[in-house]
Amino acid sequence: MFERARELGVKFRFGITADRYDFQAANVSLVDGGEVLGDLIIAAGDLWSKARAQLFGNNDPPLPTGDLVYRIVLHTDTIEDADLGAIVSRPRVHLWVGPDCHAIYYSLRNNTMINIVLLVPENLPENVAKAPGDTGQMKEYFSDWGPL
Ligand SMILES: *[C@@H]1O[C@H](CO)[C@@H](O)[C@H](O)[C@H]1NC(C)=O
Ligand SMILES: *[C@@H]1O[C@H](CO)[C@@H](O)[C@H](O)[C@H]1NC(C)=O
């Protein structure tokens, strides 16, 4: 998508941080004082996007889902476990579903990396959205699951 967009004349700038959006004028003011002018603004921000808050005129805080995910990203060529290696050799989306938890695996970057997402019940303190993972606790959630 990146290459095709470039062919079509889209200019990319990385490492800049937007601060204020004028959606009518398609003018984005940057934190460093610069500005980006265009034909339209596509705000594909994250959970903490300033664009959404400015477009809707309120902070639109994220709603707690009661879920927490552990996200594990591995380089495929560093995997020594035979069972995991066998799964990785077939780059597909794999999903395991169990009570209160599920696990998803899929490959990234042409199968040179893999992403494992483990969803469990949330147990973070209020107003904490991200924290270092506790691998012992993570393993405990899945300790009575069958093998891969
Ligand atoms: C873009 O927005 C900034 C901040 O509101 C303003 O200072 C600037 O003049 C605008 N630029 C244009 C070309 O309208
Ligand atoms: C993806 O990996 C395959 C096998 O290693 C390779 O043949 C192909 O060129 C790669 N594709 C891209 C877009 O890198």
Tell me what you see in this structure.
This protein has helices at residues 2-7, 50-56, 82-88, 135-141, and strands at residues 18-22, 27-30, 35-37, 67-75, 94-98, 101-108, 113-121. The chain is 18% helix and 29% strand. It folds into two domains: 2-56, no CATH class; 67-141, no CATH class. The model has no long low-confidence stretch (mean pLDDT 90). It is of the alpha+beta class and 148 residues long. A hairpin with a 4-residue loop joins strand 6 (101-108) and strand 7 (113-121). The longest helix is centred in the middle third of the chain and has 7 residues, at 50-56. The strands form two sheets. Strands 4-7-6-5 form a four-stranded antiparallel β-sheet, with no helix packed on it. One 2-acetamido-2-deoxy-beta-D-glucopyranose is lined by residues 22, 25, 27, 29, 35, 37. Belongs to the paxM FAD-dependent monooxygenase family. Keywords: Monooxygenase, Oxidoreductase.
Helix content: 10-25%
Ligand inventory: 2-acetamido-2-deoxy-beta-D-glucopyranose
Shape: extended
Name the beta content range.
Answer: 25-35%
User: Within the largest sheet, what's the order of strands?
Assistant: 4-7-6-5
Instruction: Describe the oligomeric state of these chains in a short phrase.
Output: single chain
The gyration radius over C-alpha positions equals 20 Å
Number of separate structural domains: 2
Sequence of secondary-structure elements: HEEEHEHEEEH
* Biggest sheet features: 4 strands, antiparallel
Parts with pLDDT < 50 across at least 5 consecutive residues: none
Protein name: FAD-binding domain-containing protein
Family: Belongs to the paxM FAD-dependent monooxygenase family.
GO molecular function: monooxygenase activity
Keywords: Monooxygenase, Oxidoreductase
